[in-house]
Specification:
The longest helix is centred in the C-terminal third of the chain and has 32 residues. This protein is of the alpha+beta class. It is built from 17 helices and nine strands. A hairpin with a 5-residue loop joins strand 8 and strand 9. The radius of gyration is 30 Å and the shape is globular. Strands 4-5-3-6 form a four-stranded antiparallel beta sheet, sandwiched between helices.
């Protein structure tokens, strides 16, 4: 009888199941094994970096320290290091310390992504497991094929792009969106900490180069996705982060849709489309994620690499060669980069382009170029040293008053 009373009392004081699951999420995120997995992901491609090697010197101790900071609520972000990148356009990137990046992997992989991904539409194609550039190419191709079967190639498309997307994300709005998904204060406070860790002069924006920011940016336009699919009933729609394409057979209807989208993002999300947003006939082709898509009269979808993408690719190959010649990278790293480039190019009709690019980019040519570059560097150093020596010889020595032989004047 006493056991029954105790069991009934325990059941009354027992927390709701949803709270237990949320608490388990935070607990699992801070487990030693989860932090170790986060470390393994965070160091990919950076294992030779000094901060990674220093962290691994006392790996067990450092992971335990991070675990203690998270569970005790004393964890704080170290701060950002800022630098500029110039591809595909000039923009500022903000990066965190290795410890902070590792913790971001833990919160994203264990908590944010599993929960948020349930709410994303299938045509949100950026930065998710089994999605990305290649998936986006296949998905837009599938949309064009289906559209052709229903309407031919006489339709229209709206290609929209958000102006200064990351810099325009409103902190209050994204916090409210996250609050709907997570009721646990520990999770929310950590996410809010990363949101508040960066803001521009307008008090808005998320740090670029930040994993949590990437996940939040992926989710921020989720209300727009559901508005397009569920209220506007647009069948052929795809979004890659802030780049989106809508295809419709009626030009006037597409104009009305554009107006409603502009109103929605302005009032609900405090965003605006930029000047690159366009509406055109499907026969002109669509520029999306580096490819130019167009449908032939027979219904075949052709994918050509855009001119701007070709120029970026050439600059990338030149940088790879220069880094190899200067000893900043090795053949193993270059090979991985080439495999990635080939995988992307194979998504389009780029056989002749690949043949042109890769026929001269061989190990033999790289070695010849490296030896030639080393000789040029040594010759430049020799000439510079000769110029410096010549300047020293022609330069007159400074006057030393202590060694003058002038006799002292006689005083009267």
């Amino acid at each position: 009888m006493e056991d029954i009373i105790n069991r009934n009392t325990a059941e009354k004081t027992k927390k709701p199941i949803i709270d237990e699951i949320i608490e388990d999420d935070f607990q699992r995120m801070t487990e030693f094994s989860a932090l170790y997995r986060a470390h393994q992901k965070a160091k990919r491609g950076k294992k030779n970096k000094r901060e990674v090697m220093e962290f691994e010197l006392n790996l067990g101790l450092n992971l335990m320290k991070v675990q203690d900071e998270l569970r005790s609520g004393t964890y704080a972000i170290d701060g950002y290091r800022k630098f500029l990148v110039y591809e595909p356009r000039e923009r500022e990137i903000q990066t965190l310390s290795y410890r902070d990046r590792m913790i971001q992997h833990a919160i994203c992989d264990e908590v944010l992504i599993p929960q948020i991904s349930k709410k994303l539409i299938y045509d949100n194609v950026a930065c998710q497991e089994e999605k990305g550039n290649n998936f986006a190419v296949k998905r837009l191709t599938a949309h064009l094929v289906k559209f052709y079967k229903e309407h031919g190639n006489k339709g229209y498309f709206l290609k929209a792009d958000i102006k200064s997307y990351f810099a325009s994300i409103d902190h209050d709005i994204i916090k409210k969106l996250i609050a709907k998904e997570f009721t646990d204060e520990k999770i929310r406070s950590m996410v809010d900490m990363y949101i508040d860790s960066y803001a521009n002069e307008n008090g808005t924006g998320l740090a670029q180069g930040n994993l949590v920011s990437q996940v939040l940016a992926l989710y921020y336009l989720n209300p727009l996705d559901h508005f397009i699919k569920e209220e506007l009933r647009i069948k052929y729609y795809i979004r890659y982060m802030d780049d989106m394409v809508l295809i419709h057979e009626d030009k006037e209807k597409l104009k009305e849709i554009r107006f409603r989208l502009e109103s929605f993002i302005e009032h609900k999300l405090h965003l605006r489309f930029n000047e690159k947003t366009e509406m055109a006939a499907l026969s002109q082709g669509i520029d999306f994620i580096g490819f130019h898509f167009y449908v032939t009269e027979s219904g075949k979808v052709i994918r050509r690499l855009r001119k701007s993408a070709k120029k970026r690719l050439q600059r990338k190959f030149n940088k790879m060669k220069y880094d190899y010649y200067c000893g900043r990278t090795d053949l193993e790293t270059i090979n991985k980069q080439i495999v990635s480039i080939q995988g992307h190019l194979k998504q389009g009709h780029t056989y002749q382009l690949q043949k042109k690019i890769f026929q001269n980019f061989t190990i033999e040519n790289l070695e010849k170029g490296k030896q030639h570059t080393i000789k040029k560097i040594e010759e430049r150093k020799r000439k510079q040293k000769a110029r410096q020596q010549a300047q020293k010889q022609t330069k007159s020595p400074p006057l030393d008053n202590s060694k003058r032989n002038d006799a002292p004047r006689k005083t009267a």
